[in-house]
Amino acid sequence: MLRGIAERLDRWIVDRNVEAREEGLLAIPACKIQVLGQFALIEGGVPLTLAATKDVDVRGNFEHGVRKELERLLRREGYELDPVGHEIWMPRETRYADLFVGAFVRVLLAEPDAVLLSKALKAPKKNAALITEYVAQGASERFLKLATKYGIDLEQFV
To answer: Which of 63, 102, 122, 124 can pair with 10 through a Cys bridge, CB separation 3.0 to 4.6 Å?
Structure first.
């Protein structure tokens, strides 16, 4: 779903930049959008029981007009851009994988281990079932090392 939105956003920026060039105006610069939180897990196809969500958490370097267009595109699909999604804490070690790379838009997904770590550290009660399921399935070595580094007591999820 997000890949399609990213493609439409990229085309929208291309069209705006063609118009800007014809009118002698400044072009919209390229942007990078990092998808965080639950939506990164959903879009990444993580094999866990994930709660449905309408909020899309992102961090990005985009102009106001691009943000407004992204919000419009998400609303058309029944989702909304979380206004404080950029405030989500993510570990410094978070890796991001490309979901879409266009002419002006690059969308990346936060790795599942980092998203799950963030959920376990910042909202353990709310995410207890999800983290318990992940630990029971056999959490990755990376997740376990990061959990130790950030002082997460995994016993609370067993």
So the answer is: 102
Structural domains counted in the chain: 1
CB 71 within 8 A of CB 53: no
Report phi then psi at 111, rounded to 5. -65, 145
Q: How far apart are CA 122 and CA 131, in angstroms?
A: 12
A 10 A CB-CB count for 150 gives: 14
Q: Is residue 28 part of a domain?
A: yes
Q: Domain of residue 47: give its range.
A: 2-111
Rounded Cα–Cα distance for residues 39 and 128 (Å)? 17
Per-residue DSSP letter, 64: H
d(CA 97, CA 90): 15
Q: What is the pTM of this model?
A: 0.92
Tell me, yes or no, whether 127 lies in a domain. Answer: no
Q: Torsion over CA of 124, 128, 130 and 134, rounded to 10 degrees?
A: 90
Q: What is the pLDDT of residue 52?
A: 82
Residue 81: left if φ>0, alpha if ψ -120 to 50, beta else—which one? Answer: beta
Q: What is the pLDDT of residues 83-123, one digit of tens each?
A: 999 999 999 999 999 999 999 999 999 999 999 999 999 99
pLDDT tens per residue, range 22-46: 999 999 999 999 999 999 999 999 9
Q: Note whether residue 142 is domain-resident.
A: no
